[in-house]
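Checklist before submission:
- one chain only
- standard amino acids only
- sequence pasted in full

Submission:
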Amino acid sequence: MRDIRVAKPYARALYEAAVEQNALESIIADIEKMQALIEQSEELKQFISSPLLSPQIKSDTFQQLFSDGMHPLTLNFFKLLAQKQRERYLVAIMDVFSEIVDEAAGRIVAKVTTAVAITQDQEQRLVQQLSAYSGKQVRLETETDERIQGGFIVQLGDTVFDASVATQLQRLKRQLAKG
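Returned file contents:
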């Protein structure tokens, strides 16, 4: 919860600065690149979250690592986070930034969890149905989780559609226990 409260003003400020400087596409690409790097690199995660490194070391490291490949606004933003000791919220800030971008573009993210990977055709049909339901363009984020045993769970904004076998079995178990 605290992460989101800290992340929102920083994400909003980055978005507004990107729009103001007419650099939104570059900033989006930089954020997506950084999200992928953090996901792939345990060392980068540890560097970002380490309380032992000084803000100056982190800021200098961001400068050295990303000065050639990122828009100056993105680089300055990362350095600012380091100087204000807010870099540990970077993942949350980038997630909120992506949500702001999607909202501004009239998109909504649907997080779909299935027991087995779904086909591209199934993804397309799901996007069509969820777009019709929400009235917005839907972007899917898919995940597999064998624990749901079958079916699917879709989170679309604040709405959750749980058609998983595991949940249905739990409901049946409760009904049988009641008599």
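Reviewer check: The first helix runs from residue 2 to 20.
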